[in-house]
Amino acid sequence: MADGILIRDLPQNERPRERLVEKGAEALRDAELIAILLRTGTKGASAVDIADRLLKKFETLHNLAKADREELRKIKGIGRDKAIALKGAFTLATRMAREISTEARLLDTPARIADLLREENRVYQVENFQVVMLNTRRRLIRHESISQGTLDTLLVHPREVFKSAIAAGAAAIVLVHNHPSGDPTPSESDIKVTRDLIRAGQLLKIEVLDHIILGRLTKEREHDFVSLRELGFFYS
User: Fold this and answer.
1) Dist CA 108 CA 129 (whole Å)
2) Which of 71, 95, 125, 228 could cross-link to 211 by cystine, CB 3.0-4.6 Å?
């Protein structure tokens, strides 16, 4: 901008890009990192000044990341291009954080499996069968929905279950499905499917670690899920 304050016009010790190169990104304030995204300021205000306005208005980086483009443009010095740059950067950072969290997530207990899928399954009106694929360290590779059934019936074929696990290079899997009734007590069909898949996994050298059934909490139930392994339905 012809009347804007360029970062290169700032004193040497106030140039965020140069400070990042010299001292590393961790040495910069949040406002300085945001200023690098903004690139230029406006008449009478540097990019750092505008970044400080943003942080004063939204208070936290989380709130700033949630703001839409129109909210951002209400801040003096933020035009269309700067709002787009900020939304793009924050969206990319959110996706990266989600990716890192997913890749690193340790899933070595029934409770952790339930935590992973609880919200997703809460909205299902019919039974949905999912497979959680894990590496040798019991960390998540990915999870995938395999089939849908009715309110109380679910058809699952070992071919579909292990096709996904083989493609993912999984060392082990956890079976998960929901009970729309809210009662996670396993049915005879649930137990039979579990034992069939355990046997199929043994042939393919992919261990079936557990089968988690998700339901809903009540005053009578301490947990909103059950583990068939903990209930004693897994055997050699």
Assistant:
1) 19
2) 228
